[in-house]
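Journal club prep, shared notes

We agreed each person brings one worked example of a sequence with its structure written out as tokens. Mine is Glucosylceramidase. I'm keeping it raw so we can talk through how to read the token line rather than staring at a rendered picture. Sequence first:
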Amino acid sequence: MKRKIFIFFAGAMMYCCASSSKKQQEKPAFNSNFAGEGRKVEIYTSAKDSYLRLTRTGEQNFSKAEQPLETGLSIFVNPAKTFQSVLGIGGAITDASAEVFAKLSDEKQQEFLDAYYGKEGIDYSLMRTHINSCDFSSASYTYIEEGDKDLKTFSIEHDQQFRIPMIKRAMAEAGEQMTLFVSPWSPPAFMKDNNNMLRGGKLLPEYYQAWANYYLKFIQEYEKAGIPIWGLTIQNEPMAVQTWESCVYTAADERDFLKNYLGPTMQKAGMGDKKIIVWDHNRDLIVDRANTILNDPEAAKYVWGVGFHWYETWRGGDAMWRNLQKVHEEFPHVNLMFTEGCNERFSADAYQRWSNGERYGESMINDFNNGAVGWTDWNILLDENGGPNHVGNFCFAPIHADTKTGELIYTPSYYFIGHFSKFVHPGAKRVSTATSYSSLLSTSFVDSEGKITTIVMNKSEHDEKFSLLVDGYEAVLEIPAHAIQTLIY
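Then the structure, token by token:
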């Protein structure tokens, strides 16, 4: 029998909530009838400058609603209007995560797995990993010998030491089907015009087929090792020339590689069911990438979705959520999925920086409200230096391990993600939700049994009293300053 533990955070215990199965159901019959009489709202709260960390902070009754006023704050939820189904919420297991995990004691490894994948934790259901090395590897590597375009030397032996064992343990801890997708950062150096896995470069046309075969071989070998692969992205950040592993594809390059090589190769191998995600980069250029690929029927037929990251703010602008809306308007039957995000520029002095968590809350609310079906954090675990990382690109993770003391450090990002992942499971549908004032952000989901989950985030410096209005009923609630709440009803 799998051991379960309760995890204490600054004296506050996370309470287990009733949760629906992670297994996705095909087109469940959703109950949109809301009976407010006698119904209660169960409240979970995380707040800045307090002990509250995903803590159950009470409940409130619904009563007949009064006309909302402009002088008050309101959140309006309409259960009769539902949108996309949720694929899952989770994070990436990288080489860095797996190497740090291996350094933990057996007790701390179990605590970590329970924290992410157990019901007493935050119940992750989505996972990403990488093909070949990435920046969060201890060194660059591929699965073949240099120059082997026929992939005769292909071997995933490197991953068998740390990454594959951790992925398998995480999947076992989750207890049910975990959705795993994979992404490459760079082809082998000899396949690129700069003869280097690092610093950009482009895939040489004479290796297009060999590289398409490489994805197939990776999936086959991982599945032989007992790890089912749900899907793949074509290239991590295809417009970025990075100091680490990277490869540049223009929109036309990605379209043509997909329709002429990768798509047909997967189909011919009997793997047409693997979901292919294009772009896998920031929201700024997502519209151009979607237009170029999805307006071509021969390319679009292979596309399950468009992936995106949140780093477009690197030059000082705001997050471009409206571009997600544009893609969703133009291609409503194509899925949008957040495939990576993390807080950059690691500093051990900022483990508990509250704004790091708020960045997650704001992004998740806006991404889901603009059509995202899934949300994937970057490294699920890093060490006390924000690594390991072979090019010094150190970052934050929701959980860090101090490898000197063996202790786990839970950051605000962990709790903010948990306000979604612990309560919103695969198969839930997003529900129409709006707020009357900009200091509050909100989104809602309903499961197949009619239970609604509303997430509310207060960005202001003040505690806020607000009314949750649902189909003629209201519950009067209060949220602390700089807090996030999950409301279950």
